[in-house]
Design brief:
alpha/beta; Dehydroquinate synthase-like, alpha domain; 2 domains; seven-stranded mixed beta sheet; binds nicotinamide-adenine-dinucleotide
Length: 362
């Protein structure tokens, strides 16, 4: 079973190919879809390459795609300009030129960094993403945002650069630690919560089935999320307006990550808490019925995600960290506030006092 989701852009489109055990088809797919490719360069991280590197490199060799590779130490702290610069050196040492294809094999960290390198090396070379975490398969590999972190904040240096295609092999999730699966589920739930009630109901009703990681179920889930995110990207590729809706849970989530120095929460865990407090704020403002918050908390808890800002984190700290968020423009911070499941608004019209009080009401 395999499925293809088309990501449609203003002047272009590309497929996300979702299947199981299809990593070993990578070489053949590149030969078919990008027949001019002569040389390939793989960027992966140490964990992922240890498990899946041979499979990918063998497949590229079998298709005479002359692969070279270099690895990033695993971890968010390595998604920075220094490592991007090391990869530029590697690409030059391996004499990669504008006809070479860069392939990322890994989670969102590798995808974001490799995509940024592909976008900037020799003014841009072709790029294929092979995401191996649930978060990367449902979210970070979809939509062309690539970036590295700066000491002043996450993803501050980046651009929009789309891959030629995305190759998703759901069987890679078998080796992903449970906490990382849960983290990815936060983004899946986010898609349902702000974009599609039926998708949200599907997740709620099939949670135990999804946790078995059966390929056919995973493919179904990924297809749903990629289609939904693809629709948003088509409407607003460069995040000038509507795409901001995907930041649901992220403004408060980022604040929690900043306050805890990125050490306490996985990205999805912080987003899960952020989604709950966005909903509480929406309720405070009279937009959302409290029963929806109960439903969301129940679903997130069943997945194993946190839903509360711990007492040791004070409301003032959260607000201060929010002000540091890069999405702040003339001090106006857009918040995504649900009105129902599958329906949300983007608004700057919210009050610090209201957010403070929902955090203090904990
Ligand atoms: N570009 C976007 O639109 C976008 C969207 C959301 C998040 N992001 C970015 O994504 C990053 C987070 O991505 P992530 O959650 O995938 O984290 P990650 O890339 O750090 O991966 C998490 C961990 O899992 C390991 N791993 C990956 N695949 C594995 C597998 N199949 N088996 C075993 N271990 C595996 C990695 O080595 C790492 O230790 C953040 O930097 C975030 O900013 C980007």
């Amino acid at each position: 079973m395999s499925y293809e989701v088309k990501i449609n852009l203003r002047n272009d489109n590309y497929p996300i190919i979702i299947g199981s055990q299809n990593l070993k088809q990578a070489g053949k797919l590149i030969k078919n879809l990008l027949p001019d490719t002569v040389r390939t360069f793989v960027i992966s991280d140490t964990n992922v390459f240890h498990i899946y590197g041979d499979r990918l490199i063998n497949s590229l060799q079998e298709s005479q795609l002359k692969p070279d590779y270099e690895l990033l130490p695993a971890g968010e702290e390595n998604k920075n300009l220094l490592n991007a610069s090391k990869f530029y050196n590697n690409l030059l040492e391996h004499q990669m030129d504008r006809s070479s294809l860069l392939i990322s094999l890994g989670g969102g960290v590798v995808g974001d960094l490799a995509g940024f390198v592909a976008a900037t090396y020799m003014r841009g070379i072709k790029f294929v993403q092979i995401p191996t975490t649930l978060l990367a398969q449902v979210d970070s590999s979809v939509g062309g945002k690539v970036a590295v972190n700066h000491e002043a904040g996450k993803n501050l240096i980046g651009t929009f650069y789309h891959p030629e295609f995305v190759l998703t092999d759901v069987s890679t999730l078998k080796t992903l630690p449970k906490a990382e699966i849960n983290s990815g589920m936060a983004e899946v739930i986010k898609h349902g919560m702000i974009l599609d009630k039926d998708y949200y109901n599907y997740i709620e009703n099939n949670l135990s089935m999804l946790s078995d990681l059966k390929p056919s179920n995973l493919i179904q889930l990924l297809k749903g999320s990629c289609i939904l995110k693809g629709r948003v990207v088509k409407e607003d590729e460069k995040e000038n307006g509507y795409r901001k809706i995907l930041n649901f849970g992220h403004t408060i989530g980022h604040a929690l990550e900043i306050i805890t120095d990125y050490k306490e929460y996985k990205h999805g865990e912080a987003v899960a808490i952020g989604m709950v407090y966005n909903c509480k704020l929406a309720h405070k403002m009279g937009l959302l019925d409290y029963s929806i918050i109960d439903r969301l908390i129940t679903l997130l808890s069943k997945v194993g995600l946190p839903t509360l800002i711990p007492k040791k984190i004070k409301a003032d700290q959260v607000l201060k960290a929010i002000r540091k968020d890069k999405k702040s423009y003339q001090n106006k911070i857009p918040m995504i506030l649900p009105k129902n499941i599958g329906e949300a608004i983007i608004t700057n019209e919210w009050l610090d006092e209201d957010l403070k009080s929902v955090i203090q009401e904990n």
